[in-house]
UniProtKB/TrEMBL annotation:
<feature type="active site">
    <location>
        <position position="130"/>
    </location>
</feature>
<feature type="binding site">
    <location>
        <begin position="115"/>
        <end position="116"/>
    </location>
    <ligand>
        <name>substrate</name>
    </ligand>
</feature>
<dbReference type="InterPro" id="IPR023045">
    <property type="entry name" value="MoaC"/>
</dbReference>
<feature type="domain" description="Molybdopterin cofactor biosynthesis C (MoaC)">
    <location>
        <begin position="15"/>
        <end position="152"/>
    </location>
</feature>
<comment type="pathway">
    <text>Cofactor biosynthesis; molybdopterin biosynthesis.</text>
</comment>
<comment type="subunit">
    <text>Homohexamer; trimer of dimers.</text>
</comment>
<dbReference type="InterPro" id="IPR036522">
    <property type="entry name" value="MoaC_sf"/>
</dbReference>
<comment type="similarity">
    <text>Belongs to the MoaC family.</text>
</comment>
<dbReference type="Pfam" id="PF01967">
    <property type="entry name" value="MoaC"/>
</dbReference>
<dbReference type="InterPro" id="IPR047594">
    <property type="entry name" value="MoaC_bact/euk"/>
</dbReference>
<dbReference type="GO" id="GO:0006777">
    <property type="term" value="P:Mo-molybdopterin cofactor biosynthetic process"/>
</dbReference>
<protein>
    <recommendedName>
        <fullName>Cyclic pyranopterin monophosphate synthase</fullName>
        <ecNumber>4.6.1.17</ecNumber>
    </recommendedName>
</protein>
<dbReference type="InterPro" id="IPR050105">
    <property type="entry name" value="MoCo_biosynth_MoaA/MoaC"/>
</dbReference>
<feature type="binding site">
    <location>
        <begin position="75"/>
        <end position="77"/>
    </location>
    <ligand>
        <name>substrate</name>
    </ligand>
</feature>
<keyword id="KW-0456">Lyase</keyword>
<dbReference type="GO" id="GO:0061799">
    <property type="term" value="F:cyclic pyranopterin monophosphate synthase activity"/>
</dbReference>
<dbReference type="InterPro" id="IPR002820">
    <property type="entry name" value="Mopterin_CF_biosynth-C_dom"/>
</dbReference>
Length: 159
């Protein structure tokens, strides 16, 4: 375990200086999910949600969120993102349905895009909740975590 890098010599928060870090191709993939009942699942898959196409809106929300990460997370650097993609996959859990969300973010830069991928996946799940809460408020947003990342000084990571 490495030392935390977001504190200065006085123990106060700081943004890490990446001035001398080498630019490399970087990628991160994060996962989140949202569980729902059959009524919500049917409403989404049959395009019966009054607010519109849920997965299309969640896709755009995730992309927008990745681009705004540095305005939401205080110590994140604003970075040039070269690509964001979200994918959705359905699975069945007993009497519930789960929408699994994967967010992939890429850049060429001096710092990674893990936070951007995590933010994209999280906001996509929140968007699904927002669009479907009129049908059922008992949806549960599941664990959100980093699946993999590549590039940079710390190397590759795969969960």
């Amino acid at each position: 375990m490495t030392d935390f890098t977001h504190f200065n010599e006085h123990g106060r928060a700081k943004m890490v200086d990446i001035t001398n870090k080498k630019e490399t191709a970087r990628k991160a993939i994060a996962r989140s999910s949202i569980q729902m009942n059959q009524q919500v699942y049917d409403s989404i898959t049959e395009n019966k949600i009054k607010k519109g196409d849920v997965l299309s809106v969640a896709q755009v929300a995730g992309i927008m969120a990745a681009k705004q990460t540095s305005t939401l997370i205080p110590m994140c650097h604003p970075i040039p993102i070269s690509g964001v993609d979200l994918s959705f996959e359905w699975s069945t859990l007993e009497n519930n349905y789960e929408l699994v969300i994967h967010a992939e973010v890429k850049t060429i830069g001096s710092t990674g895009v893990e936070m951007e991928a995590l933010t994209a996946a999280s906001v996509a799940a929140l968007t699904v909740y927002d669009m479907c809460k009129a049908v059922d408020k008992s949806m549960v947003i599941g664990q959100t975590y980093l699946l993999e990342k590549s590039g940079g000084k710390s190397g590759d990571y795969k969960r």
